[in-house]
Amino acid sequence: MEQHEIITNRDLALQALKQSNVTFKKVDGAxxxxxxxxxxxxxxxxxxxxxxxxxxxxxxxxxxxxxxRENQFRVSSLQAFIGGTSVGSISTTYTSGKGYCFYxxxxxxDQERDRGNGMRTSKHDVVISxxxxxxxxxxxxxxxxxxxxxxxxxxxxxxxxxxxKYKEAxxxxxxxxxxxxxxxxxxxxxxxxxxxxxxxNRVVAKKLKMSKLEDLRSALxxxxxxxxxxxxxxxxxxxxxxxxxxxYTDETLPLEVRRNLGLLKLIxxxxxxxxxxxxxxxxxxxxVLLERA
Length: 293
Hints:
With 293 residues, the protein is α+β, with helices and mostly antiparallel strands. 39% of the residues lie in helices and 28% in strands.
């Protein structure tokens, strides 16, 4: 690497943060008025900012950091995007005996490593080379597989929690009929006269929720004929159902997923589950029950 590309001038690093392909984000996601903020930078990021921001203008750099004082923003990492898709990141880490170095991550870098994730280096040219050769979007198959794994974890946790709540409710009732409530109106009426309709309905509701969650988990784990994994991607949708993967726009998105996806988008809390609708893992990943005529 040519010497003039290794920038150690802190003022020049600050100039890099003013380029058109750079935006800022606080840890809490709140907007930041940069006109009133003093910038600080974790070392050795100040040595690499100018080269990566100016050498790769096609990359949108999102600057992460936090407020140190009322008007000082400390830059702690750079996240790279191409066409709205994250392709990699650069931050700093401390290695015992070697001091601070760069920590570079991307899908390609992680796939090449036998152990651990990311690449640690103190060499500027290695960082530049990694950005040039290794910063690329994940394959669609990897995106879907990652989404599937995270949704399974969320559903497993929800099923476990719902099962425990149902068991606790049953344990509070001294009865032999609770498991038969759905099968017989007479059993339900008898239970209601013994312990009260409100208490029986509470247990029935917990049992029904547990059953629906288990059905949702089974649909994801089996042939996936009744569900679709949907990942929002650059203004469109990657949809995986019945082991088939396709990309859609708002106009071409299949009707069988539109309504339930719309309902899940309205939820503000991530890792939320509507047993009759699907799962919202986050603002861009969903599991949707299909609506078929």
